[in-house]
Amino acid sequence: MAKKAAKAPTPPSPYELFGLRIQKEISSPKAQKAKMAVLLPQEGDNPEFWERLLEEISENDNVTVAHRDDGGVNVFWTVLEED
């Protein structure tokens, strides 16, 4: 029986790559310790990606997004203790 050729993985979309960059910033040890991340747009970032991502982040419970004068945002979160 002939083997089927392995299907090449689908490369991430530009939005997924953008999201991975932001996820890396939020997941950094410094941000995790402070329960806060400063997210700054980079040159070439798609403004629609920023709007979409901030909307998605804001939908989470126990998360606060504060817009900064420099165009970035501060994201704060609380971790609830389990009983």
UniProtKB/TrEMBL annotation:
InterPro entries: Phage_F116_Orf28. It comes from the Bacteria. This is DUF1654 domain-containing protein. It comes from Pseudomonas lundensis.
